[in-house]
Amino acid sequence: MARIKGGLNAKKKHNRVLKLAKGYRGARSKQYRVAKQSVMRALASSFAGRKQRKRDMRSLWITRINAAARMSGISYSRLMHGLKLAGVDINRKMLAEMAVNDAAGFAALAKLAEEKVSAPEKN
To answer: Which region among 1-5, 40-44, 70-74 has the lowest average model confidence (pLDDT)?
Structure first.
């Protein structure tokens, strides 16, 4: 049986990598070996970046909630503890949205949380 050379498959593989490296500077977008390294690193970084984005957003929400809570005269930790004691099950994303767009509603939640935290324990 005759041997089949793999030139076409190799060319396809190279072109796939070079297409991903389009826009890179210099040899990174022209030479397969250099482009492959750059693309592998970029793909790894993009995977890590998708995880980092989630952490960054949670941090942003907490910052917004803290700023709005302090405007209502309560700290972030006391607010969250008070909401938990009050049985208010609302996530940080929605609390941050309320802090930005619905100041009156957020202030009401902050007041409720303050009452729950400052009230003496009943055992």
So the answer is: 1-5
Q: How far apart are CA 7 and CA 20, in angstroms?
A: 20
Contacts (Cβ under 8 Å, ≥6 apart) of 96: 60, 61, 62, 64, 65
Q: How far apart are CA 85 and CA 90, in angstroms?
A: 12
d(CA 44, CA 86): 43
Q: Residue 22: CB partners within 8 Å, gap ≥ 6?
A: 29
Q: Which domains does the chain have, with CATH numbers?
A: 8-118 (1.10.1900.20)
pTM tops 0.70: yes
